[in-house]
Specification:
Strand content: under 5%
Helix content: over 70%
Number of helices: 13
Number of domains: 2
Order of helices and strands: HHHHHHHHHHHHH
Shape: globular
Distance between the termini: 32 Å
Length: 383
């Protein structure tokens, strides 16, 4: 074997096992809306966004660490299993009464960050084949996660004494600090094939949660056309991501990985929010959807497709700077938004409009890109 050739890092089965806890966490957070008949209050939506972004930050930090420094070692496995255990405690407190579980939720969150800080410290001092840049990255990670953990744990007595919630400061600090670390990460490329596969797997699992979410359309109270439309919408959204992953994404790209991970944090949030939007639409009385629900669905769908477009900056050279494609997709989204806001109060009309938008973008993406592809692929199974 060529000694100069870089060995491809495979996604470990333990990493896949670890990602399952995030699907469970998203499911418990989505339960915030299970008893909501009308449009949820803005406070509940804010709670949903906060709890989801916290969970995704844990995934973000863990994924980046194991991509660069994770090995088949007992220490790494123990770290993963400890965080899985603690995530159960976070998930149990992630509900509409989360402030009543403040100690339980924030205690687990703080311990997760301490565990991640320890893994970076341990790797920095005991890891082999690390150079000065690796030590700087690990030191920065350790300090960032330690500071975030301290803020989280200090927020517990502050909340107990004053009722003030300061933990969002820790969340914001963590994301900003990670963005500032880009100057270090960009000096050495991430293992992009491994990173893109990790992102793909969480996207698939999140779409699995959407499949569960649209079960509301398969009750006796719903007509056949309603559940068919909901199913087709989910399939169309999933196929577009799969098309980009298989055909457009440059899997050998040299990048820090932080931007790609950040896009996927937002993408997972958009997919999960679309699940909530579809569940809310399923509860429409007599097939008539409230304006706020239609608006919510439009916003979540638009966010999903805009984030898919952002992944084009990681595409193969042949697809760079395709302004026409982006412009037409935006035009389709704009027409969809206008139609939904004007006539999307009917579940059937809104569903048909959404299907036309979803498959219109999918077909247009395939048509636009196929001329530059040697072979069109869908997951490697369809010829």
């Amino acid at each position: 074997m060529d000694q100069g050739k870089k060995v491809e890092k495979k996604v470990e089965y333990v990493e896949l096992f670890y990602d399952l806890i995030f699907v469970y966490s998203l499911r418990t957070i989505n339960a915030l809306f299970h008893d909501v008949e009308g449009f949820p209050p803005l406070g509940l939506i804010a709670t949903f966004l906060f709890l989801t972004v916290v969970i995704l930050q844990v995934w973000y930090n863990t994924t980046m660490f194991f991509n660069r420094y994770g090995r088949k070692s007992l220490r790494d496995y123990i770290s993963i299993f400890i965080n899985m255990y603690l995530l159960y405690y976070m998930a149990d407190g992630a509900n509409s009464e989360w402030l009543n579980h403040y100690i339980r939720y924030h205690g687990a969150w703080g311990l997760i960050m301490l565990n991640l800080a320890y893994r970076n410290w341990d790797k920095m001092y005991f890891g082999t084949h690390l150079d000065e840049l690796d030590h700087r990255i690990l030191r920065s990670n350790c300090i960032t996660m330690l500071v975030e953990a301290v803020i989280i744990l200090l927020s517990i007595p502050i909340h107990q004494l004053t009722g003030i919630v300061v933990s969002p400061v820790a969340l914001i600090f963590g994301y900003i600090a990670k963005a500032l670390e880009h100057r270090l990460y960009r000096q050495r490329s991430v293992d992009f094939p491994h990173l893109s596969e990790r992102c793909l797997l969480l996207v698939i699992l999140t779409f699995g949660e959407m499949i569960i979410g649209i079960s509301s359309f398969f009750t006796e109270q719903q007509s056949l056309i309603h559940n068919v439309m909901a199913f087709l919408i989910v399939i169309g959204m999933f196929l577009l991501y799969g098309f980009f992953y298989d055909n457009v994404l440059d899997h050998n790209r040299n990048t820090s990985g932080l931007g790609y991970l950040t896009i996927h944090v937002a993408l997972i949030l958009a997919i999960n929010s679309t699940t909530i939007a579809l569940e809310l639409v399923a509860r429409a009385s007599e097939g008539m959807v409230e304006f706020q629900k239609s608006l919510f669905l439009v916003l979540t769908m638009a966010a999903y497709y805009c984030l898919i477009l952002l992944t084009e900056q990681y595409c193969k050279p042949a697809f760079h700077k395709d302004g026409q494609f982006i412009g037409i997709v935006f035009s389709i989204l704009l027409m969809y938004a206008l139609f939904m806001l004007l006539g999307g109060n009917s579940m059937i009309v809104g569903g048909l409009a959404t299907i036309i938008m979803v498959y219109g973008i999918l077909i247009f993406a395939i048509h636009t890109h196929k001329g530059r592809l040697k072979k069109l692929q869908f997951g490697g199974y369809l010829e």
